[in-house]
TrEMBL record:
Keyword field: Phosphoprotein
PROSITE patterns the record matches: RESPONSE_REGULATORY
Residues recorded as bearing 4-aspartylphosphate in the entry: D53
Pfam family, any one: Response_reg
This protein's name: Response regulator
GO biological process: phosphorelay signal transduction system
Origin superkingdom: Bacteria
Domain Response regulatory residue range list: 4-120
Organism: Fluviispira sanaruensis
Amino acid sequence: MAKTILIVDDALTVRNLAKYALSKGGYNILEAEDGSVGLAVTRSNTVDLIISDLNMPKMNGLEMAKAIKSDPKTQNIPIFMLSTVASQEVAQQGKEIGIMVWIVKPFVPDKLLAAVKKVLEGIPLK
């Protein structure tokens, strides 16, 4: 059965690019335009991995990740942050919340797909 990935980003073009890359890997894709919608989608669907932007309206990626990681039903879902923010300080905050991978935009679609495959197959990232 195909794994389901949730892409959370307020930019439709980023969602479409990530969706295109991940669809090549055979994944089912769900989408959300901000963190509050992403949180609702996560709570009402079986999600195997989340890829989220940081800066979004209503609820940002770190706030969404914190809510997901504090819920026993969703706390084990791996989360990738896909952001233009390259700050080590912000990335460290994300790591403390439970962000597994921090990818700086613009991203290489094939590298994103490779990282997702490794995580979902239980292969450690280097």
